[in-house]
Task: inverse folding
């Protein structure tokens, strides 16, 4: 596999995995996800070894899954346990399984050798279990390499341009109003990269104004922590004399194919958590689908298409890209350490 | 051509070929089919030799077809007989023709050298001409290699799983009710393979119950005979003390491209042939479109997609596959005898 | 570039280029076209050098365009003039620009070295500026190589077949009514090819009858002049004792990709120019979309698809193809003179 294989990949929201099998491609591998009668989440390669029919068209029976074509049955470890109307089962009928863990509202798969799966290596998203916070979960399928979406999030400055009319700060246009002071900090710590960006006393776009709970200038701070393969933990803080709101976000980017990805996200607030006034879960859902679905996803998809059209062009980095650069370097080192080729997307 | 060329390929239902030309791809070759003023069916390669416009956009004039772009005219043997506003016709303007025969409700093409075309080699579907039987004809375009659809039909055991709720027998689920006795027979006879599968005293799915004309347990017998390239003649018999109904089916699989096919079928009954009560032709049409269109075609298309996704995986045969195996061996021998490469679909 | 590069390519109707940037592919190059605050038309390669986002998603600010992703700004010569929140701009941030001229109702781009751009080499369409004539402009995107559309226009004889029921003459069908006299003249003059086709005393299809303004037999004459890369200037004249109407047409074919093209056209009449009776601009618009959109474009797209399906087949020319042949020879010579490979479409 061309991907890092000693990490967990998020494959689904926990709510997406039920008794009805779910077909999904993770790191270019077709996988069937399902929930057994006992509630356990399992993941197998999505093919019956008999005639290569997708198991995702089959049915869960107890703790097993049955192919709907000719009735072969497999357990959660990929062993074939039954072939209709014959007594023995050929050993070659075994298929691959992927260790699966359900945690923090997501289902995580280990795509490397199963025996190396290490639950301690799961990312920590414990604010999703904090009763003082309220998460809303998202899943988008994006037609772009997973690094392009990660880079979008790693360069917070895009918010002021791409989302200038909704969630950005009012500091963008060339020749626009006075530019507020901006602080940046970036720090590599082993296999993690930390980043802070604070815009002092800025006015906000209308949606961000509602989040802040204040229409006066605020200090707007993004704290971000990145970890491999491409999970970004973020705290967004709005603060002035009359308000102090924080939003915890986890952005989790999973490769589907080289040119497509799964984007998982939780938007976890410390205000309006009784879901009775603004923001309700529905408000959050609509806002994020407008901003991410309407601005970010079309942009990274257009970028992916442009990279295909223009071929081997080189990026020209800006000073604000230091977090992107630090992450790319860290990732490149991890690929080299694992003896894998460094993807073009982080070599640029 | 990578296909067997000393056989007839079904290219259309007889009712599909009319004065308005019909474009169809048979064995990867673009063909135009049309019916002349005298009622004769003809097939030419689907290009005008002048500028490569498709003749299927043209018009039939008498016993000929005229290209609609600049007016070249061709006869049924592919000879160019007229170029507008010039007296002579260049010999190079000739295009290929395919010998065409209309028989048993279908139009058959000979894709090998025309001089070798042998009407005696046409498959025998004479029950379509039997006044005591009543056929209904079908044509589906399927996004899968033609062998996958053939294999579907050759392994009758799939009926009890994929169609368990409609036309199957109630013998499928692991841990289900008692399993009735099943007899299998398989016999290779030259270039034909014969197969029999009888399920004794079985309950049937609701649609099969209506066909049988009895809701008591029946002996359900499938007699199948396969012949090259991929025609399956089948008799399905339901029998107990109060009923004896038979259905004659011909399933004819024609390659369109390596990953797509034409599937022709007739469902020919010996009951309800006055078309006044159940089953009417409309009932037959609806049932088959539900079962084949809703179950089989999506399954073989998913299988085709999975083979593309998984690449070189090997099937793990079951004991019930003996008819499939016998047919694959016979086909492989025919390809080798013809000095052609054995397709991957029957080497697996 | 595999295309001639010492010629102007039409990239848009003048009315298509406004402040909102327009993405278009010309000669396989992604281009962004826009109109600045001062009304100037500009064309840049459609990528921001920072992260390869399409500039066509950006905004025009004064005489410049700003990328909407992270705010880089470019002038009309492709120089990067501003990177947000940093003082200097890296020289490597420069992108390509294409000299652009707005003339005769079209926007023309020079795709070769910018310093060689020569406004005197622009085609002359001055009848679009003649107050005694009234043009209507068209743009179609066609899924065929640009030469196939040119060849369609160069062989006027297709009109009588493909458009026999609308704008053709009644001289087409084999075995039809008496064939009127047809004169052809063809003359190569340096890099231009001239052609004349006159059909004497012919009846016309119903649409052409309305253009002619007479339902009696007319002399119908097409005068055509072709120039590189693929612009065809045409005068269509209808004349008898009671009428003399002329229509000036320019057909401009621009490559988009090897298998797709832009087709620009003006249909410029010397009758009904007060737009009060037949033909109004709307009549012209409807008729051309019916004839070109309904007959010609489907035909050349079918031809393109057929060339892909049949591979290396050779055309069999007719006597009426002399204008096509003369143009192909002239084009082939221009490609060879420019040291470029002769495209397959004119070698056939």
Result:
């Amino acid at each position: 596999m061309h991907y890092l294989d000693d990490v967990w990949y998020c494959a689904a929201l926990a709510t997406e995995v039920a008794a009805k099998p779910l077909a999904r491609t993770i790191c270019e591998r077709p996988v069937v996800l399902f929930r057994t009668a006992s509630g356990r989440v399992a993941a197998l390669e999505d093919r019956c070894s008999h005639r290569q029919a997708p198991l995702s068209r089959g049915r869960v029976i107890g703790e097993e899954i049955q192919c709907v074509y000719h009735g072969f049955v497999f357990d959660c470890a990929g062993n074939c346990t039954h072939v209709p109307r014959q007594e023995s089962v050929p050993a070659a009928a075994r298929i691959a399984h992927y260790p699966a863990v359900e945690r923090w509202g997501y289902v995580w798969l280990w795509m490397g050798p199963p025996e190396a799966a290490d639950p301690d290596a799961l990312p920590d998203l414990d604010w999703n279990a904090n009763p003082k916070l309220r998460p809303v979960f998202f899943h988008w399928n994006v037609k772009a390499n997973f690094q392009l979406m990660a880079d979008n999030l790693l360069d917070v400055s895009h918010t002021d341009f791409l989302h200038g009319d909704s969630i950005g700060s009012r500091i963008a246009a060339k020749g626009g109003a006075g530019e507020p002071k901006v602080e940046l900090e970036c720090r590599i710590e082993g296999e993690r990269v930390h980043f802070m960006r604070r815009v002092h006393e800025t006015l906000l776009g209308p949606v961000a104004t509602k989040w802040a709970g204040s229409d006066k200038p605020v200090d707007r701070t993004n704290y971000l922590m990145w970890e491999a393969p491409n999970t970004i933990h973020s705290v967004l803080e709005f603060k002035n004399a009359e308000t102090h709101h924080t939003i915890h976000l986890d952005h989790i980017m999973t490769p589907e194919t080289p040119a497509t990805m799964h984007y998982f996200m939780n938007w976890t607030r410390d205000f309006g958590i009784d879901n009775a006034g603004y923001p309700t879960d529905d408000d959050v859902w609509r806002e994020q689908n407008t901003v991410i679905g309407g601005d970010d996803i079309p942009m990274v998809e257009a970028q992916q298409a442009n990279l295909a059209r223009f071929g081997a062009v080189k990026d020209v980095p800006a000073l604000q890209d230091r977090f992107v650069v630090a992450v790319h370097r860290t990732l490149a080192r991890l690929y080299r350490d694992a003896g894998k080729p460094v993807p073009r997307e982080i070599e640029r």
Summary: The two ends of chain A are 21 Å apart (CA to CA). The interface with chain C takes residues 151, 155, 157-158, 160-162, 172-175, 179, 182, 299, 302-303, 305-307, 309-310, 313-320 of chain A (CB under 8 Å). Chain A has six helices and 17 strands.
